[in-house]
Amino acid sequence: MADVSLKEIALIIGVVAACYWNSLFCGFVFDDVSAILDNKDLHPSTPLKNLFQNDFWGTPMSEERSHKSYRPLTVLTFRLNYLFSELNAVSYHLLNLVFHAVVCIVFLKVCKLFLDNRSSVIASLLFAVHPIHTEAVTGVVGRAELLSSIFFLAAFLSYTKSKGPDNTIVWTPIAVTVCLVAVATLCKEQGITVVGICCVYEVFIAQGYTLPMLFDAAMQILRGKCSIPYSMLQTLLKLIVLMFSTLLLVVVRVQVIQSQLPVFTRFDNPAAVSPSPARQLTFNYLLPVNAWLLLNPSELCCDWTMGTIPLVESFLDIRNIATITFFCFLGSLIVFSLRYPGDSSKTVLMALCLIVLPFIPASNLFFPVGFVVAERVLYVPSMGFCILVAHGWKRLSNKSVLRKLSWVCLSVVLFTHALKTLHRNWDWESEYTLFMSALKVNKNNAKLWNNVGHALENEKNFERALKFFVQATQVQPDDIGAHMNVGRTYKNLNKTKEAEESYMIAKSLMPQIIPGKKYAARVAPNHLNVYINLANLIRTNESRLEEADQLYRQAISMRPDFKQAYISRGELLLKMNKPVKAKEAYLRALELDRTNADLWYNLAIVYIELKDPTEALKNFNRALELNPKHKLALFNSALLMQESGDPTLRPEAKKRLLSYVKEEAQDANGYFNLGMLAMDDKRDAEAESWMKKAIRLQPGFRSALFNLALLYSQTAKELMALPVLEELLRYYPDHTKGLILKGDILMNQKKDISGAKKCFEKILEMDPNNVQGKHNLCVVYFEERDLIKAEKCLVETLALAPHEEYIQRHLNIVRSKISLLGAAEQSTFPADGTAAVGEKKIPFENLKEVKNEQKATQTLNSNINKGQSNSKKRTGKNNTDKETKKKSTKEIKDIEKKRVAALKRLEEIERILNGE
């Protein structure tokens, strides 16, 4: 076995870097979104064991919607990328480039087993630049192919060392081979096929048998003319060990997928559900299609599903000629490689093994797969193709007549392939560029039209997205997903009638339930979202809530483990004021997924509706255990702690609000509630700072403006409160409490009776029955020395609040003054009289309020169509006027002290009025 020189390594690395440098500028596209962006298994907070319990896309293997693609080691490398750079796409693409270079170098070492040095380098270079590899190298999810290939080739190289002197068995390389096969299989399923290549190598290369030799030996043994040779026994023993190890791996793999094949529909692979002979003819025709992609990779497409390749439904279809030609050519190569001895036949045989055996799992010949053609699965088979090409080139270049021509052709092929690869990489720059490039190759695939629409939809370009979605429905009228996309886009364009019509069409295309037959086996799980989307649309109409609930229940009846249906139904039941049933829905969803922080959060909201704050807080805490950065849980659990009135909970509430503002630095509500906490703890300077920050972020923040003014008023900074109140009333001219507070400051601090009068009159214009405003206007009349008007005003006020003793007392004071001075004589009210009449003004410590526009609950927007969980957002039940909040003992004592002081002043005023 020849070693690989440093010059060869440098050459290969240089060529790979030249061909794939621009892949570093590509983002996450197509399947990368599900495998990387939406895969929680990449996050450090997810336990490592989940990688070995979930499939490649982060879905538990036990769930029916799982694709059963078990590749934990590949996901582990994604997780390492995330650990160092989170979702920076450059690091993911760079690691793919490195892995491809490693595969090319190891492949060069394998080539040297069967080719001379020059031909081996050519095969490796052709493999390095072949455009068919762009999907595996530039698409991040293609890392499964790259990693599996490294261990695939390493396992084969290890096995080639298992033959010792005199045909003895060296067991260490065999043990290493078995381990490497297991690792390759944990990177991608096709890694197990290297065992078949090892078996062929052992029989036809290591032992030097040909098919006629094996046939003769078998006949001799059967006739009893000779016994089994020792060398053959040695070979059989090695093969038995290999096969037993393979069988063990297969058994483990079957156990992992729980003896279930993934569910695919006719949209993923139309031929898989077609009757005979269309199914067999189409699957056989796909073999020459894949061979042609290796031979002429001029038109590459990222998605070959649906109608990309029309079914071959008849023996008379002209495409059958391609199938026959392919099998004839393949058969002749197999006969040549198995029948004749010599290095050339051995090279051809190993090349064919590398082409055929790794491709078998994706061939659809033994079990259906979720695609028609996939360029990435040709990554390993292309190794055999490159060996064949290099071997053929070697044969041609040995003939003097064709030597120059062979070099010219080789140079052209390598150069054009490298340019094609470089150009093809740019297609993977974004989802829009990728799917638009695919549409240039194939316009009969509705999925491509849908995906271009999705790319435009992500850019909020709904008008253009709608055109592509509508085109998808025309290309494939029975595509449920396309009609769902049209409906969702109409909804985004606020065309609810058209959206409902599209959803109804999609719903009508759903297969009917057949008793005793598993429904999910005949429909893509995500298509059931049509019930969710339609229900979400019509429940905006209060009169159709029951109809929406019926749709949720219908989806659940079709698929009892449909978690999203329970989540959406729970939200609807809350809206219908049925918190007990909503609780049942969320608990059922939690049975299906206890690791979903959003579900625990939603259950907490239900407990708030059920007036059980203790359980609500427990569920908020469960959500934060699963996701310490769950923003809504941080925010609303802090508000719940604040509402409780328990001072011991305030430090934790502050800590959570600080975490929230760290995540949502531009949300003024976080800073406002920090200010409210500081006011509760009498940290006035800190409260002022938080309130000002909230106002800077959200000018016109009603609650922050009022409470900042109130804070100034409480801390003897009444004149600083005035400009804040002016700002508040500029945004909200009808803010009653703001007007009361402004009028009080104008009357007591600035002695601006006229300005105060305007404030109180404004209140009464808006609400003639406002007792506080009317009472304070009576005070103004008294300040203006109009005792008759003051008396009349107090009589009217007393009629509005006959049980308020202080109004009656003030009326008595005014009447006493009138009777003492006579009808024509009026006296000036003492300078401190306003304090007496203002005795019953709402105590300032009870005037705190929060943003009235905030509701008790809101819904967190979520893209149901993509299977994301819905969360309900509670924006704070204590966000109402602060006088409704339960007061602390200290606050109550302070209020009582003020009342006692006010009563003493009242007694003094009464003595003055009585002439004492």
Q: What this model shows, in words?
A:
This protein is mainly α. The chain is 63% helix and 1% strand. A two-stranded antiparallel ribbon has the order 1-2.
Low-confidence stretches: 823-889, 902-916
Major sheet characteristics:
2 strands, antiparallel
Radius of gyration: 40 Å
N- to C-terminal distance: 123 Å
pLDDT averaged residue by residue: 84
Report strand order across the widest sheet: 1-2
By DSSP, the count of extended strands is: 2
**Looking at the structure, what is the overall shape?**
elongated
State the helix count.
40
Helix content: 55-70%
Spell out the key features of this protein.
916 residues, mainly alpha, 40 helices, 1% strand
What does this entry show, briefly?
With 916 residues, the chain is mostly helical. Helix content is 63%, strand content 1%. A two-stranded antiparallel sheet has the order 1-2.
What is the fold's blueprint, element by element?
Layout: H1 6-20, H2 31-37, H3 72-85, H4 89-111, H5 117-129, H6 134-137, H7 143-159, H8 171-187, H9 194-206, H10 211-222, H11 230-256, H12 278-295, H13 320-339, H14 343-356, H15 381-397, H16 403-427, H17 431-441, H18 446-458, H19 462-475, H20 480-492, H21 496-508, H22 529-538, H23 545-558, H24 563-575, H25 579-592, H26 597-609, H27 613-626, H28 631-644, H29 650-663, H30 668-680, H31 684-697, H32 702-714, H33 718-731, H34 736-748, H35 753-766, H36 771-783, H37 787-800, H38 805-821, H39 833-837, E1 858-860, E2 871-873, H40 889-913
